[in-house]
Amino acid sequence: MPAKHHVYLVPGFFGFINLGELIYFGHAYDYLKAELARRGVDAEVTIVLSHPTASIRTRTADLLKAVQETAAGDDGPIHLVGHSTGGLDSRLFVSPGAHLAEGLELEPFAQRVRSVVTVSTPHAGTPLATFFMGLFGQKILKLLSLFTVYVLRYGRLPLRVAFRFGHVLARADDNLGWKPTLLDQLYDQLLGDFSSERRDAVAKFLSDVGHDTSLIPQLTPEGIDLFNASTIDRPGVRYGSVVTQARPPSFRTRMAAGLDPYAQLTHTIYALVYGQTQQMPLTALPPHTPAQTAALVQAYGALPGPTACDGIVPTRSQVYGRVLAAVRADHLDAIGHFDQPAYQPPHVDWLISGSGFRRPQFEATWKSITEFLLEDETR
């Protein structure tokens, strides 16, 4: 009888799966479970609970905890699929000799891993992390984390908050004068729409974001350089990556977003983070193999330039191992957060980038991931 496969979906920065039914990987989880069942594969798919902005080592310990709780009863193969920072957690998990903390036995599980898939992961870092290390960036980060949670729960932001936040962004040149009282008011307005239980969960989430942001300096190009120097690939493990590239913000993309105030607000946020992400030092971009370069050229028509990105991570920073898919998408599209409300359950677009990514591209991407996970089974 074939051994059960254990597939772990590892969330990225924010890791807001910690908020109960707010599912970071909702659509990806549903698709993967259904596709594995359709292929007759005995598999358990688990979504990992991670500290939202803690260090890569802390988050990898979270991954180990999930594996211990669900895969200790057998010796079946393990597969890791990490989005964004979750891809770095997955790489550290399988790195030979990795030490997380005293008493944590990683190796018995790491040696069972057969494949690692990274989706929109900053393998060479992202300059956006450098921006978030600044005072203004830290305040934006807290708001974005709360907005992410709210939008996934309700689909849209209250208009009063949208207009107020748009005004704040318009005054970004005066960012050091942005008073905490304004932030408090925004928090109160948003939290007032949650149940008492939900407010407690959100408050804990924001507390985690505020008290442990050790992940942020690790995601800078300089921080990732040290990570890459100390994290090596495990022999026998197959590594694959999904690469995303979104359209640069422009007058055309702003007009395409329509007149909806929420769409205009989120497009403004997208333009802000996109501009910061474009500032990737050319020397920080990793060299690609001929096969990786060919895959990017085939997908995009040309090798993406050094400023190409998905709004959060430079496109060429995302390449690692075999390129399974290279798609026109923003940072959250590939895990199911794009605009297709008619689908059931609906896809909700968190950040309106104008990428044009929709359900057919989503299914093609995750079909490629599924086939990669099962590659050993089909040989």
Could you please describe the fold and organization of this structure?
The protein is of the alpha/beta class. It is 46% helix and 10% strand. It contains 16 helices and six strands. The protein has helices at residues 26-38, 56-71, 85-94, 107-110, 127-132, 135-154, 159-170, 180-191, 196-211, 215-218, 221-230, 251-256, 261-277, 290-300, 359-373, 375-378, and strands at 5-10, 43-47, 78-83, 113-119, 238-245, 322-328. The chain has a six-stranded parallel β-sheet, with helices on both faces. Residues 172-186 have low confidence and may be disordered.
At a glance:
The protein is of the alpha/beta class and 379 residues long.
**Rg over C-alpha atoms, rounded to the nearest angstrom:** 20 Å
Strand content: 5-15%
- For the largest beta sheet, what order do the strands appear in spatially? 2-1-3-4-5-6
Helix content: 40-55%
- Tell me the series of helices and strands, N- to C-terminal: EHEHEHHEHHHHHHHEHHHEHH
**What's the shape?**
globular
**What class would the helix/strand composition place it in?**
alpha/beta
The biggest sheet, with number of strands, parallel, antiparallel or mixed sense and barrel status, is: 6 strands, parallel
**Quaternary:** single chain
* Number of discrete helical segments: 16
Give the terminus-to-terminus CA distance. 17 Å
Low-confidence stretches: 172-186
